[in-house]
Amino acid sequence: MSVMRKALLGAALAAALTVGTGAGARAVGPGAEAEADLAHHGHVSLWGGRLGVWLVSENHGPSDVSQATVRLDFSEPMAGGQELPPACLWSSDRVVSCRTGELRAAGAAGELALDLRTAGRPDELTVDIRTAWRDGVADTNPRNDRHRVLVLATGDPYVF
After folding, report:
1. Is the confidence at residue 154, as pLDDT, over 80?
2. Domain with 23 in it
3. How many domains does the chain have?
4. Are 28 and 17 in contact (CB under 8 A)?
5. Residue 63 region by backbone torsions, left for phi larger than 0, else alpha for psi between -120 and 50, else beta
6. Closest to 110 measured CA to CA, from 152, 54, 154
7. DSSP readout, 97-146?
8. What is the pTM of this model?
């Protein structure tokens, strides 16, 4: 094979294995990192020293995610001794981490509902929601899986 043909073949293979240019470029084909677009949506309510969180995690694709973890970080401490759903655990008195379960491309996971007691009776607090782990799958659109919600103690649902 001539040097010119080898150079053209090498350029063609390189082009076939990279889609796009610059920061948006992504590898495709064998050995390429899988991509997904995780999103978390729901609402948070605060009333009389209680905090309710309702959350749905989705994967807009293109790849399935076998497991992910969503982290909820509260600006105020929660009361001790509270049980969480089996998929969740306390990281501190202000942080809860929950497994989402499998997130198939273009699908939704089950709803997560938390009913928590705050350590005091705050007039307001903030909740930071974000994906903490996604089983090695790249997320090129992280804006829809990170939220900061200011919640007033009115009992109203604050949607994210």
Report:
1. yes
2. 1-32
3. 2
4. yes
5. beta
6. 54
7. EEE---B-TTEEEEEEEEEEEBSS--SEEEEEEEEEE-TT-EES-GGGGE
8. 0.77
